[in-house]
Design goal:
With 99 residues, the protein is an alpha+beta fold. The protein is 48% helix and 27% strand. The strands form two sheets. Strands 1-2-5 form a three-stranded antiparallel β-sheet. A two-stranded antiparallel ribbon has the order 3-4. Helix 1 packs across helix 2. It is extended. The two termini are 22 Å apart.
Length: 99
């Protein structure tokens, strides 16, 4: 599913126009990005949480040239699904597999 698909489904479900819905979706994304860049987490009860997680520096190898490359320590965005979300996906996928 793409961002355009999400916008279309939300617009048809809410009665908002696609332009209004796109503004809301873009605003949500910008808010999450801004919160993470400010060091804050974002928690959506029943859905999950977003946070920035540190990754340690490490040594890697370029698979094409076999050259050793040093990768600096950095922060990466992480999403952790809520228990309700995980359970809903698990149940739906089990039912799909049975049919």
């Amino acid at each position: 599913m793409t961002k355009a698909d999400i916008i279309e489904r939300i617009a048809s479900g809410t009665g908002l126009t696609k332009i209004e819905t796109e503004a809301v979706v873009n605003g949500f994304i910008a808010t999450v990005i801004n919160a993470l860049t400010q060091g804050e987490g974002v928690e959506l009860r029943g859905f999950g949480s977003f946070r920035a997680q540190p990754r340690a520096a490490r040594t890697a190898r370029n698979p094409r040239t076999k050259e050793i490359v040093e990768i600096e320590a950095r922060y990466v965005p992480v999403f952790k699904a809520s228990k309700d979300f995980r359970d809903a996906v698990d149940e739906a996928m089990k039912e799909r597999r049975e049919t």
